[in-house]
């Protein structure tokens, strides 16, 4: 599961982590929510480019966005065969850039948010799929984040987690000449729990419009 995430790292740190691709302008974010723009990398014409994509994939055959389910996540076990994702799985894969994500679990009568990040706090990449939708008006480029079974740490809060790709897996995932679902599916594994941390944060983050460092401040 991935319902909100952060990309609060400075642009120069993000560029360095991902081998200095050309990135569009962006500002640090502490509470990125579905339907908002996310920063992603994709391979086009043999070059890796940075783009902004709408979080919530719109299949190219969709007719009415008002009735379309909000496709923010795609299960890695079925994405290669589901109609909404299978074409993108073969030909339009991307890296959605982040440095942490939130998960909620029920504590008494309330939902408590927990923030997950890498132990060294560096930026990372979710495995993503993207599509281009064209009807009346300007085209919309959108994406979804792949999920997998939770590792031992994430499983304390949810049975699913977003797919975080290792450095070695990133270039394979973006390879435009690779379209074998079996090979691609091997990349979609739970990230090692020993390399991650998670902690409770203030319910301030529960409101999608709230931003700033308070979102990830540890809760006493």
Short description:
The chain is mostly beta strands. The chain has 4 helices and 13 strands. The strands form 2 sheets. Strands 2-1-7-8-13 form a 5-stranded antiparallel sheet, with no helix packed on it.
Description:
This protein has 220 residues and is mainly beta. The protein contains 4 helices and 13 strands. The strands form 2 sheets. Strands 2-1-7-8-13 form a 5-stranded antiparallel β-sheet, with no helix packed on it. A 5-stranded mixed β-barrel has the order 3-4-10-9-6. Strand 3 (37-44) and strand 4 (47-55) form a beta hairpin. It is globular. The two termini are 25 Å apart. The mean pLDDT is 95.
Secondary structure: elements and pairs:
Layout: E1 5-7, H1 11-17, E2 29-32, E3 37-44, E4 47-55, E5 73-75, H2 86-91, E6 93-98, E7 100-107, E8 110-118, E9 124-133, E10 140-149, E11 160-162, E12 164-165, H3 167-174, H4 181-185, E13 196-200
Parallel strand pairs: 4-10, 5-10
Antiparallel strand pairs: 1-2, 1-7, 3-4, 3-6, 6-9, 7-8, 8-13, 9-10, 9-12, 10-11
């Amino acid at each position: 599961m991935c319902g909100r995430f952060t990309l609060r790292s400075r642009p120069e740190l993000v560029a360095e982590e991902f081998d200095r691709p050309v990135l569009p302008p962006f500002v640090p974010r502490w509470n990125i929510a579905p339907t908002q723009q996310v920063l992603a990398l994709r391979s086009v014409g043999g070059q890796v480019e940075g783009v902004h994509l709408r979080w919530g994939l719109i299949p190219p055959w969709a007719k009415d966005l008002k009735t379309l389910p909000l496709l923010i996540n795609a299960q890695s076990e079925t994405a290669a065969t589901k109609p909404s994702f299978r074409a993108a799985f073969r030909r339009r894969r991307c890296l959605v850039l982040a440095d942490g994500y939130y998960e909620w679990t029920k504590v008494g009568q309330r939902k408590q948010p927990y923030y997950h990040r890498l132990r060294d706090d560096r930026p990372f990449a979710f495995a993503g799929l993207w599509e281009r939708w064209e009807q009346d008006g300007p085209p919309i480029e959108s994406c979804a984040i792949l999920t997998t079974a939770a590792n031992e740490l994430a499983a304390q809060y949810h049975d699913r987690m977003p797919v975080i790709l290792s450095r070695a897996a990133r270039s394979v995932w973006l390879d435009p000449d690779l379209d074998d679902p079996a090979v691609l599916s091997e990349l979609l594994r739970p990230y090692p729990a020993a390399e991650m941390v998670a902690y409770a944060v203030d319910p301030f983050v529960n409101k999608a419009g709230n931003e700033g460092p308070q979102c990830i401040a540890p809760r006493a």
